[in-house]
Amino acid sequence: MLAGPARGRRESLEEAGREPLPPPSPFALNQLEQRVEAARQDYLDALPIAAAVAYVGEDGRPAIDVSNANFKSLAGLPDVPSGTGARAIPLLVGRIGRALAEFLGGIEGSTEFAGDDGNVVGGRFFTVRLSRLKPNSAAERRCLLTLIDTTSQVETEKNLRSEMLRDSLTGLVNRHGFNERVEEALEQPDFLPGSYAILVLDMTRFSRVNECVGAIAGDELLITFARRLFSALRADDVLARTGGDEFGVLLRLDKGIEDALEVARRIKAVLSTPFRLSELEIRVDCAIGCALLTGSEQLAEEALRNAQFAMKRAKASAGIQVYEPLEARAARRRFSIETELRRAIEADELTLAYQPLVHLPTGRIAGFEALARWNHRERGAIAPAEFIPVAEESGLILALGRWAIDSAAATLASWDRKIGEPLPLSVSVNLSAIQIARDDVAGVVAAALRRTGLAGNRLTLELTESAIIQDPAGALKVLEALKALDSKVAMDDFGTGYTSLAYLQRLPIDNLKIDRSFVTGMLGDKDSTAIVRAVLSLADALGMETTAEGIESQELADAAARMGCCYGQGYHLSPPLHADDALTYWVSRSA
Ligand code: C2E
Ligand code: MG
Ligand code: MG
Questions:
Q1: Which of 262, 332, 350, 417 is surrounded by the most beta carbons within 10 Å?
Q2: CATH number, domain at 435?
């Protein structure tokens, strides 16, 4: 600062054409530096914020050269003499000190960041700015350090945030807060899949209670309910109100799922005593869903949803349900379907539905396809698309297949008896590839024909392309044996497999059933139409009849008939019917 006027004088002397001044004496230099020092101190003291000049000391570590009163007061020291190492000032020990050392060692012109004094309780927060200063005779690397106190701002933000994460009625964390806690658990360095669980509890009948006692008493009930829940938890468990009458608990598990179930049971136990609301005594129970944190959840929200999903299932039983991921549930369902299917077959609980096969040119019913139906006592109707694959995998298809052949033949024979003569009808039964490979299908059919007295041509066996591809020679033998009984053979779902045309020519097939995926889309789709045409002309060339599956409208029936298709099957013509209804339907149509 003094250099300014001095240089000014020198310039004016030079302009005057005089000799330049001799260099100042060491004494003058010392005086000059002292005055510079004093002026610098004045400037720093005049600043309304904490400020200090820091430099790299001889030991290579940051030290303070000069600092102002605000800085000293923040540092909690009466004085910070020049040369005080940054490490001797508590404020500069933590993050701010590290940033200072890094900055002094670098080349950046300036930097700004949020820092704090490192005190956990009552700590202060700052906006810290470091600006590089030109080197001077004392230090090569220097910077100005300023700190703006932002503590009150940070506290306000924190308070606002914790308000946002808190439920005002119960004082518990709310759904956002809960999700944050779950996220924290997921981010724990020692997190292992299954080391935490979420419980979601839904108060039963809360809305009814609320309606009866009014909102204020309802609120009181929620608060008491929350207190009871809290009393059943362990110190580290997190309880949250995640919705109106829904509460969430985050639990750390030591022994696995059993810990969570234990807590759930304790919760149930503390709810067993009725709640007292003014003069009323109310019993409140809850449904509890539990989900383990596996770490594969993208978000805490997903883990909570899983637990809610289990809780919804628990509502039906007012009990405790554990969420199972889809695959696990599907596998369990398959397993239990297998067990129950075995029992259902033994107990003769399966039935056959009969879907008419209609001769398209005349509208006459030529026969029925027998389709297995399973009406489970608890689960309701289970589709063949679900239980047939299970039957195939488990080998139960052999028993199921034999039953289907016997049962279809018996029904057809009973129709004959009811009407009093052999009806001009045949019944088609589906065969699985496994039966072709492993069972004596022709033997089973022969026995059924013998038992019922039916002519062989009253039964048609439908097999899929997969049965042929797996073992063409074996399939040929079975088909020939069936032909020897005068039974008919249809190729089901034709077009979806990869039967070689050579086999098709060699096998004694009477009817090609064109898969419904081609038929249903035929009207709007040129490719489907072309495929159907191709199959029709192939069947024609090989001397086979054809059936269009999936006739879902009159237009489709008309189109299939126009294209030369023999038979049609589909919901538009008739859905699969109960055996008695099927006969009534046939009688009404052939009158
Ligand atoms: P599939 O042999 O191709 O039987 C025709 C399926 O199409 C039946 O389904 C029938 O209800 C359905 N269907 C009929 N008309 C229409 C229609 O217009 N539109 C649509 N979208 N679908 C129609 P279902 O009864 O669910 O049977 C499915 C499959 O399960 C059968 O296909 C067959 O492969 C198998 N299946 C059924 N019963 C048995 C059985 O006793 N043994 C064996 N091995 N398989 C069976
Ligand atoms: Mg079929
Ligand atoms: Mg089919």
A1: 350
A2: 3.20.20.450
